[in-house]
Amino acid sequence: MNTPRIEVHLNKIRHNAQTVVGRLKTRGISVTGVTKAVCGHPTIAQAMLDGGVLALAEARLSNVRKLRKAGITCSITLIRTPMLSQIDQVIQFCEASYNTEMPVIAALAAAASRKDTVHGIILMVEMGDLREGIMPRDLGAIAQQVVDLPGVALKGIGANYACLSGTAPNAAEMEALSDLANDTEAQCGPFFQTVSGGNSANLPWAFAENPTGRINDLRLGEAILLGVDPVSGLQIGGMYTDAFTLVAEVIESGSKPFPLPHSICDPVFKRLHLVPKSGQSERMILAIGHQDTDVLGLSIPPGKRLLGATSDHLVIGTCEPAQKVGSEMRFQMNYSALMSAMSAPDVRTKLLCGNPSPRARASQGPSNHLVPT
Predict the structure, then answer these.
(1) Which of 158, 252, 261, 359, CA to CA, is 20 to 30 A from 85?
(2) Measured in whole angstroms, how far is the alpha carbon of residue 138 from the centre of its chain?
(3) CA dihedral over 128, 134, 135, 141, signed as positive or negative
(4) Tens digits of residue pLDDT in 38-63
(5) Is the peptide bond before 259 cis (omega within 30 degrees of 0)?
(6) Cα end-to-end distance, the chain, whole Å
(7) Contact 156, 193 (CB under 8 A)
C-alpha cells in the first residue's frame, strides 16, 4: 500500500459532527464546518454535512473550487478576507465572505452588480485575538457603508478567538459581541442573520451555562476533525480523536554506535539529539519529514521517541527491537500536522468508511472533557 498516507475514518468525522451539532442545537447555535485543514477535500466535507453542519467555510478559493467541482452545492463562505485579485472568483463560488476592508467590500459589490447577484457580507470585529477585525468603535460606520452599497447585503458580524493569541474567550467577551450586534443593528437598520461567535476554542463557553445572547453560529474545524479542544488539547467527551492517522514507511533500521568518528561528530549534530551520549542506539528512519508534515505535531507511538527530522527523513528511537525495513508506523496528528500532511503532494489520502466502535477512544485526554452538564 502506498506510503506516506493519511487514513481517514469518514464515519468518525460524521459522528463528531453529529455530536457537536446536537449539543450546540440545544443552545440555539448552528455549526458551519471549516474544511481548510483538509484542503477542501469534498468527501470529508460531505461527512461534515452528513453530520448536520448547515454550511461550509473555507479560507482559500482553490479549495472552494475543488468543493464546487465535486458537486458540493451548499452555501460556502470565504472566512479569510478576500484578496482584491480574486474578487470575481469570490462572487462566482461563494455566497458570502468575511470582511474587514471597505475597498474590498466595494470591489465585491461592483463585481456582484455586474453579475446581477447579491453577495453576503459578514464583518469581522477585533475582539482581542489581534489577527483580523474591525475595531469595535468603527463597526457602526463601516456597517452603514455596507448597507448603502448595491450588490452586497450585510448578513452579520463575527469574531475570532485563540488563533493568534491562544486565549479562549470568556463569557464577558461573548456578551460584548452580542451587545455589538444589537448596537450595530440599531445604528444601520438590517437584522443580522449571523452572529458568528468564533471557532472550536469557543466550545468551553458554548457548553457552559452562560447565556448565549445573540451568538447563533460557530465555525468549527478542529473540533469536528480531531475531536479536541484546541486550547487545552483535551478530547471532547464522546468524540473521536483518531479520525486521521498518518502512516509512514521504515526505510532504514538498526543500531548505530556513539561516539562516532571525530570528523563526523559535529556539535550541531549533538544539539539535535540525533545520537545518544554513549552506547548503541536502536533507531528507524521513516520516509517522511518536514516537507510532509509538522513533525512536532505527531503523537509518537508508545515505546518510541522522536530523535529528529530533516526535510524528508524522520528518525525514531526505540528501546525495543527496531521494526524491519518496509514496515509501517502509525501516528496521530494535531491540527498543524494534519494541515501540513493534507497539503503535502506526496502524502496520499485513503478514505475508510467502516463503522467505528460506539465509544470514542480517549487517545488525547479524558473523555469527560467538555461534556455539558
Answers:
(1) 158
(2) 29
(3) negative
(4) 999 999 999 999 999 999 999 999 99
(5) yes
(6) 45
(7) yes
* CA dihedral for 256, 260, 266, 271, sign (positive or negative): positive
Report all structural domains of the chain as residue ranges with CATH numbers, in order of start.
9-226 (3.20.20.10), 244-352 (no CATH)
Q: Alpha-carbon distance 143 to 12, whole Å?
A: 40
State the pLDDT confidence band at 358, using cuts at 50, 70 and 90: low
What is the grid cell recorded at 103? 475597498
Residue showing cell 475508510: 352
Cα–Cα distance, 283 to 245 (Å, whole number)? 22
Residue whose entry in the numeric block shows the C-alpha cell 474545524 = 221
Cα angle at 44 between 24 and 41, to 5 degrees? 125
Q: What is the pLDDT of residues 169-219, one digit of tens each?
A: 999 999 999 999 999 999 998 899 999 999 999 999 999 988 999 999 999
